[in-house]
């Protein structure tokens, strides 16, 4: 009977009212119950008060008959003798067990049956909590604890308010663990640190009846948190007039995977010309904002004159100068205008003097923001190296950086450790040494968490703007008249490189067939060597991995499309089904034209030419910035938040893709600062030279099984 040891206050008003009605009768009612109660000394005084109230309520009547007549004349709940007696018993801490004992003593079978049948299962003498609770006052939480953000070392108070039966008790929990001393409606947490951060909940109970509040999340307000994290990665390899490189592809791919694990929004681009590099930087700047961590990584040819660094596009002439390149310090100045929380430049390029460039650039005054970090792959007037091995290569800088990038340390500490690692390597010592320049005053790290800004619209705008540049076409199935079904699938290797694969889903018996792609829209580069290949490697993709879920017995062909930023209209191509019946020697063809819109970065229309001046001076840089913004698709999106299917009006300007190859007989003097291939590095062992990318499997955004559209 332990379930009955709670007080009468746990009974609901409906149950008390019904019991009072049962006690308000002349045969076996409140009088007999009152006399049975007086057998217990602690209730004698209460019974005398009860009789005095009854006389004052009705008239000065003394006889038994008159008292009974008085009780029958009181019709309201407050005037009910039975109800008043139950109230006195409640105030005297009378338990349900004692009341049941007294009712049995006076043989009030109706009241006993009412209490016991509501507390029993059918054919079971044991009281059951779920039925008895229907008679009890419910516990109602009127004030739930609220989630809060608090600075480290601060104080917070969580509050839970509830109404219900008398004797409510409280117990706070941090997830599933009881909080020591947390048995009051208010929970006070002092000197908040990482150990106190988490989810809290309060349990309110009386007897065996309980309920829980809503969860409250106590979060540390990190002073080093970013409002967002955005990275632009550019790797230039296939130069028209200079030595071609191999490392940028693997370096950009690995850094992309690592930064995505740190919640960076990454835009990764290969082989950009001068115009495309400027447009890409302008779009990158639109992703930045107050408190955003911005990271720019560049791998390719470069040089440095008088403290100014320049990134060389793939279409730079043999005797290039600053007007043919992208000025790093100009990009920094424009990043500061976006009020970023951290500006990181990782420049994996040579820093040799350019003897053809005698212009001394004068950047405008930089703001004192104390949030700038430059990580140079090599020292001033020195070269940066890459390692060739088989089909893949890594730059020396990335070979060491990828091992440290995920460490939860201040970004300058991470780069210092990379420099120390490079200095301990015998083959890099004296040839290439990382140089760090920084005015970073706060302990900011690339691993810092992201906390939403005060303006959620800006965060949503940034998410949508980034997603626009990463829209993949949806997979689709083509039905041919001969009964063959062909599936088209799409994968992003980089933000401007896409893989298309075809595979036969269904074919009638007696047919041998294959589906090949042709007649692509003008703009993207489609090397015939890399179309309709039986393996990703043959298609030119050395980094993507093959999915095991694709049945090996089903034929599939891969096609690699690069330079998607040069796509001026919707991408379309022809799917040609070649098939032959086993009973015939003649091959038959069926064709279908497929249009998939503008995939990936082509949505940003980076091919559009703008009326701008070369940013060779602060005024020219500002003018470039002013002219480039309004024409941008991303700028329109920032103002109007259109859907992902929105597109910008096609420019009437055409992109002049001047093809050419370097000739040693060129009359112009050729620039000297280029990344060299050191024969000594060809003999290096792991880990500096590695064909296997150790971090490539940590995040697998490019596997075919993970294809999806944003």
UniProtKB/TrEMBL annotation:
All residue ranges annotated as the Ig-like domain in the record: 138-213
Comp. bias regions, Polar residues: 655-668
Question: Which SMART domains does this entry report, sorted A to Z?
Answer: IG (SM00409)
MF terms from GO for this chain are: cysteine-type endopeptidase activity
Using the record's annotation, list all stretches that form the Caspase family p20 domain. 227-354
Q: Name one GO biological process term.
A: proteolysis
Query: Region (Disordered) spans which residues?
Result: 649-679
According to UniProt, the name of this protein is MALT paracaspase 2
Lineage from the top down?
Eukaryota, Metazoa, Chordata, Craniata, Vertebrata
